[in-house]
Each structure stands twice: as C-alpha cells, then as structure tokens.
Amino acid sequence: MNIIIGKLSGVGTLFGGDYYKDYGGDIIAKLFMDMVIKHPEHNYYVATSNDISKTFSGLNAINKPKNLIDYYTRQKLWCKTHGYKINDDESYKMLESSLIEDNIKIDKVIIQGISLANTSLWGLNYTYDGSRLRSPLMCSRSGAQIIYFISMNKDISCSFIVDDPRFFLNYPIDLLKKPNSIVSQFNETIRVKVYNGYGIESKTLKEIELVCKYSHLEKYVLRNKQKIDWRDDKRTNKFIMTLHGLPDRVKLIKKWVYDFDRNIKIYGNNWTTNKSTVNVVNKLNIPFTIFENCPICDIEDLLWNSKYTYIPPVSLKYTAFVTQKVWVMLYYGIIPFWCKDEYDTSNIYTVFPEFLKVKSPTEMWDKINFLEQNIEEYNKLRNQLYDILKDEYFNSDFILNEIEKIIY
C-alpha cells in the first residue's frame, strides 16, 4: 500500500534532532517510524513538514528506511514550478496535484490530528465539480493540503491519531470526509463542529459524531525504555511536581501542593515567562522561588529520588482522557495520586489501586503521611504499582498492534 502520514499542526513531524522529545506530541513521530520499520511492504509518504533529510544525513543516511519518503519536499517543488508559495494562493492543492503528476495512487491516510486553527488563515476560494467549498480553510497551514486531499478523495481510507482529544473539540474544522477510524486516548463518541458540505452548507456549522477508540496510546512513552526494578530503592525527596506553567494550573498548585508544603519545587516551562501565569502567581502570593524552568528530561536524577506526585486533570470536560503523566511517573517509581472527581477512575484507571484516587488535597496528604509512617504499606503499594508495568508495554509492538486493530 501507499500510505500518507503527517501531522496536522504548524510544526513538523520530527523523526530526530535536538527537538525530538520522548513525551507529548512528539511520540507520534516514534510511532510512525516504528510503523514504517514494521511494514517494509508499504510506502509511507510524509506529506507535512518534517526533518527526514536532516535526520538521515551523512553517515546516518544508511539508517533511513527505504519506504519512508519525504513527500513534502516534492510538494514544495510543485509550488515553485507552478509559481506559488507554500501556504499561499492555491498551495492547498500541492499534495493532490503532485500525486497526480507522479502517478501515485494512495491507499490510506494516517495523520496525527491535532491543533487546528480557530481563525481564517488565508482567503482561499476553490471549487470542485462546479460546487464551491467553504472558504477559507480553518485548518492549520501545514495540514491544509491533507484536509483538501481527503475531502476530494472520499474513497480513500483515512485514520486520525488524536493523542490529545481536546484539540479536536475546541474549534470548528473542515471535515468533508469523516475519518474511517480515530485512534485516541479515550474510548467514547465525541461531538465536534464542522463545516461539512458544499454550496450553502459550506458556510453552515453542524455537529457530527466521531467515534474515538482507546488504543493504550499514552503508554507509548514507555516504548523501548529499559524497565528498572525500583521496588527496593531508598528515596529522600518526598514530593515532586512536573507541570508546565499555565494560569489555571497555578490555582491547582496552590490548592494541592503549596498550601500543604511550601518547600516543594514545581518543575516545568513557562512559570516565569508566561505573562498570564505570572499574573496569577502574583495574585495568589506564591513566591517564584518554588518554580524551576526546566523540562522533565533534565531532572531524571531527581525523579528517581522522589516518592509521590499529584496528577492534575487534563480536562474537566473529558474525564475519560488518559494522560501520559501517570505512566511517566510510574516508570520512575513515583506514586501518583489524582482526584477521582477529575478522572474517570471507574473506566481506564481500573488497574490502579483505589488508594490513589482521592476526593481532596487533604485526603491525599493524609495518605502520604500515612505511607511515610508505615513503611510496610509503602512497600506494599509500590509492589502493586510495579506489577502494573507490564513487560509488553516497553516494546513498540504492543501499541502498534493495538493501533492497527483500529486503523487496518
């Protein structure tokens, strides 16, 4: 099969380099790469901005899979040849037109469906079979040509990988073709607003249902890591928080952490650089000395020495959302607590002990103090958590098999 892959966002699909992370949206590039390697019988065309040529340059060129094709460079050539600039005029046609010129028949599209813009980006007016589609496109510039392509080729199977469902739910999008399947981090049907039609319908918002299938996608952060047996180690740092700074998170930090222990450090970016966050920190009289601007990958030694953490809600509207952070903390042997009213603990998190699911900050800290005073219970709980880290989660085949059950 010939398969299009890519990322619907303003940034590229990164397969390597300095900006390639083990967490967040960048794990999808790892997933794509593993998929390419697992299926040498298929050709994978990366149709959005990427770093393939940079990653597989020089001596590393030998490691580039032959079936991984940077088709975005080909599209840019099409624009140059036809007198267009990327993201201007009729560049939204560059994918479909390049494929036609190259006589390539696409069988499937698998794209990471994330951040979609909520403002008009450029004034496109394009037609199809004499019927005007809505103008302009409301998707990000990098993904416009893919949205156009799947809209015009409704017979081609299309699967979205939505690692963060919030991005699907925030903005209206052009979706003339519903995805055949959606791989996600929760298992439910969602309703989204779309511009979905021709003529007068192209100007009208309507709601449609999209069925999201849970695929253990959040466990991909464990992919190819070495499983460490931390059950008998001795730790000295009682509590740690790793969380990027946003205004609404400041209140969570105060409520769940700062009001109980003012010496705990909060590690993450944007706490002192995001103006809105800074304003809330000042308003709540929290000293900036508790915040350390650094990503999680820079504090691994501290993570291996920490005992407990609090997992904040990803979205109070979608409590079935499964966050990577639970599994990241578990990997480092940190005991995670979360509010049972903020997560659907009766669904996805059934494998975790009920002890970790609390109703209030006071209950959480009471349990932490209990564990600190009862070492046997502390060790018993850690043994339970270690057993949740199945060996299969550390092999990319586990997640790929779960995903392929949905998309193939």
Could you characterize the architecture of this molecule?
This protein is of the alpha/beta class and 408 residues long. It has 2 domains: 232 residues, no CATH class; 161 residues, Glycogen Phosphorylase B (Rossmann fold). The chain is built from 13 helices and 18 strands. The strands form 4 sheets. It has a 9-stranded mixed sheet. The chain has a 4-stranded parallel sheet with strand order 12-16-17-18.
As a percent range, the share of helical residues equals 25-40%
Radius of gyration: 23 Å
Mean pLDDT: 84
Poorly predicted regions = 117-128
Largest sheet: 9 strands, mixed
- Major sheet: arrangement of strands: 3-2-1-4-7-9-11-10-8
Measured distance between first and last alpha carbons: 11 Å
What share of the residues does DSSP label as strand, in percent? 15-25%
Number of strands: 18
| Category by helix and strand content | alpha/beta
Shape call: globular
Could you state the oligomeric state of the chains shown? single chain
Overall tally of domains:
2
Q: Figure out the total of helices.
A: 13
Looking at this protein, list some descriptive labels:
13 helices; alpha/beta; Rossmann fold; 408 residues; 2 domains; 9-stranded mixed sheet; 30% helix; 18 strands
Describe what is shown at a glance.
This protein has helices spanning 27-38, 52-55, 71-81, 94-101, 144-152, 166-170, 247-258, 275-283, 300-303, 324-331, 361-373, 375-388, 396-407, and strands at residues 2-7, 43-46, 68-70, 108-112, 127-128, 131-132, 157-162, 173-174, 181-184, 189-195, 205-214, 237-239, 241-242, 266-267, 291-292, 306-310, 335-339, 357-358. It is built from 13 helices and 18 strands.
